[in-house]
Amino acid sequence: MDENNIVLKTNTLVTTADTDFKNRLRAGSLVNMLIQAAIKSAGELGFGFEMLKQNNLIWVLSRLTVEIYKPALWNDSIEVETWPKTIDRLLYIRDFTVRNQHGDVIAKATSAWLAIDIDSRRPKLINNANSGVFNQLSDKYALNYLPYKITDVAYQDSFFKYAAYFDIDLNNHVTATRYIDWMMDAFPIHFHEKNYPAQLSVNYIKETLFNDKVQINYSQYGSEYLFEGNNECAAICAFRGSIKFS
Predict the structure, then answer these.
(1) pTM of the complete model beyond 0.90
(2) Per-residue pLDDT, 129
(3) Which of 40, 91, 92, 237 has its CA 20 to 30 A from that of 201?
């Protein structure tokens, strides 16, 4: 398949619903734009949710790392470019480049996805005649490393979140962007007045279901904050995250 048919470019407008109190694109909204572009790309390449469902599979985001160079603002027009890069064992690696209306690169990202069996909840590889597309652009990258794997967090502070109606997605678990919102909630409003994420990573470890109680532990190491969300109902680690601020 030709590269032009593998690389997808989508455009979207930053609305007031996407921004924080300083008119900057919220980190969770940026990640949502990446995810929506990934969903559209997978569908156009023949590996969308409907195709996977026929094989009793669903796409699940496993890891994500985003570098942010400047914040997009309300009413900016954003272009998200995305493509499948390679397969690392069971992880499907996908990259992203984000530009504003002036053509400036404002963010780059790399992500790792799993094709999960709906019944066993275990990852599987997709095997069909078109699977080669996942490795065809292995030399094209936005970030020249894999999404970070975050280790255990020795925490200094913690708070709690309950998975509510607006946290749950069509797979009946907490949606990927909500974990980022939860991490950003750890900081007081005056902190956000002076700081904006320069890099963030999330490892999605175990799903969180409706009404689950999650204890979010976090620690500061210089300009980096590490997070670990423990699902108290299931007694497991649900996610780990990292945010560095500029």
Answers:
(1) yes
(2) 61
(3) 40
